[in-house]
Amino acid sequence: MKTKKFISAVCSAVLCCSFAVTAFAGCKKECEHVYNWTVQTESTCSADGVRNGVCGICSDVITEAIPVNPEAHAYGDWEVQVPTDAAKGKAVKTCTLNASHKTETELPVLTDGKYTVEIKSPSTVTQEGSAEYTYPHDLGDITFTVGLPKKEITELSDAVTLAVENKGEIGKTAGTMVMPVSGKPATNNFYYEFGDDFTHIISDGDSREFYCTDDGDFYAVEISNVKYNYDGKGYPTDKKTAGSDPAQSSINAGYIDGIMLALGYTGTPGAYGAEDFLSVLFEIADENRNGDFVETELNVKDDGTVDGGFTFGYFMDSSQRFSTITVKFNLNDTLSLKNLNVESKIYGIESIDGEGNPVYGYVQDEETGYYSVKSDSSPVGIESVSLKQERKSELETPVADNPYPKNALLVKYFDLTYKTQDGQTLTVGEETVEFSAGAPVVFSIVNVENVAENINKISYDPIEAFLRDDGKDIPLTASTGTDNKINVSAVTNNSTATIRCFRMGEVTVVLKTRSRNYEKVIKINVGNPQPPSVLLSEVYRYYDTGYEWVDYLTIEEDDLKIYVGQSLEFRAKAPEAEESYTDVSYTASVSDAEQGASVADADISTNNMFTASKPGKYELTLVSALDSKIKTYLYIIVEEAPDAELLFGRDYYAQLEDPERVKADIKFTPADAVSGTVTVSFLGMTETLSYEFTPASIVTANGNRVYNNPRLVTRRVSGAELGCSLSINDAYGITLSHAKEISGQFEEVVIIPVKA
Fold first, then answer.
1. Are 263 and 323 contacting, i.e. CB atoms less than 8 angstroms apart?
2. 611 with 689, same domain?
3. Distance of alpha carbon 506 from alpha carbon 437, whole angstroms
4. Which domain holds residue 624?
5. pTM of the predicted structure, to 2 decimals
6. Residue 686 gets which letter from DSSP?
7. What is the pLDDT of residues 673-723, one digit of tens each?
8. Which letter, b or e, does each residue of 603-619 get, where b requires 16 or more Cβ atoms within 10 Å of its Cβ?
9. Is 743 part of any domain?
């Protein structure tokens, strides 16, 4: 039964599958599609779009167009025709897909209340402002900027600001400054004019004239002690006093704006040029420190010109003076400063009362602290500035070119000439100049050319000397020659350069203008060494630690002692400052210094070695080979050599050089006068040596004396193997050598007698 049921179930499943396949095969031809759409490209105002459909029943795929959408524009920014207060404007957007598609809206006049207005920059009397207008729209707000006209002159500060703003219009300024000097007025005429990137200033009161250049860096030329005649306008005509040669000046760069104007006796600060002076005075007045600032005038005329004025009080604490200052000015129709008149009445000490106290012409209010003039007081002095200005457009004659443009006084070229030893005058070029060591050579500065034509003066840009050594330029002075590392000196002025070379060989000296605008190179070959100014001497003297060169003058006269048969090496030398350029060649001779020191008992070999065969005091004379007048003397005491009993009848020690400062002990045990044993102990070890001593001797062979130095020979006998040996030199100094390595090196040290 179970088998039949299983077969029936399988058959049923097969029949069902067969039916399903048949049913789908028949639907492929008869499906009513239901598409799911996906947009690939949206349609626009100018082009169809594209969409894809997939049937959710049979997965059929189709593609079809999406029709043009007349409203699907892609507009750009608003292009605005800006309206005014009186006329409407418009705003247009253009479709970026099709330029023929536009949308346009009318913009009302600016006074229409539909705008939102934001001031971006307020207008002033010197520049226009701007405002941003916003008009609402469905396609985006329409925003545009409208310029605001310059502010009209309504306040005195406006007029002052415009004067400063328009100072570039001014071509020439002429005026006077009056100062109360010793109770009397002193008048100073002044004048300045503006050229292309320069200002020309004449200050007649202190007799100075300036040409100030500004092309990014300030540069000024000054002529002092100059006076001018003036015409009716106050303009200079010709010079009454020619003045000094022009020279570079260190005046303030503010002079580019004109002469410095100030009320010096009043105490107000100075400013450069009329416009800035007016501005400074107004700033002080406007602070109203004394509570009396009054704007006396502001008149804007129909012709565009402006008159202005103000007064204020100013107390100068340092000098206890109070001034009442009146300022009046006029602006041209282009609003540049035309005239400026400033008057300061100064009140100070009028008298001294009976108790010796000063009586002032002013009083101070106790509550406010403000000052005022007494009703019956008179000024102790009046200080004033008056000037008139002419615009460049009004000038009958343009401002002349600057005769001293920037760097005009700098030197662009010069030559050097010098005389040879045979009297020839040569010009420095590429060839080498021959020098004698230590001798001065004078170079003349000729053919000077400045940047500006027809000046030709080195004094405006003086030269300085340098030694060019190993790629560096070392400044030279008259005293440089005392420096052994340089040994070249130079003295320069406005006509010559004197050079001395104190070292032999090739030398390069460079003469540069102070501005470094030009330089001249001098190649020098220094020869012909000179004798030293004085001949000095040194001896190679033996000390307990060995031989060393010692200045003879540092040795006590009776302290230079040697032994019979011992050689003393000596040499001549020059003073340290002269070593590099002098020749210390010499001849040496020996003479008796006292009875018993016979010349026959001494030898000088190879001109630098003295040896004597008998005791006594000897004199050595060294004479310069270049100048026999230059000589020096040495006195030498010769003693008998120490005998063997003295040498070996004592104990010695040696201080070995190492971080622990190891000390070696040496003890001689003589067997006879010339031999015995010696023990050397250090580092806890002892080595025993035998020794044989041979005294110094003098033998004569073929008429020549031969000096045999003393000898000490040692051989190991017993004890530790320290590798020790002892030797003796002609000064009877005993030296210890050993093979024991201490601190990485082998030692050889002079041994020293142990003091009793």
1. yes
2. no
3. 11
4. 536-639
5. 0.56
6. E
7. 899 999 998 878 899 999 999 988 877 766 677 778 899 999 999 998 888
8. bbeeeeebbbbbebbbb
9. yes
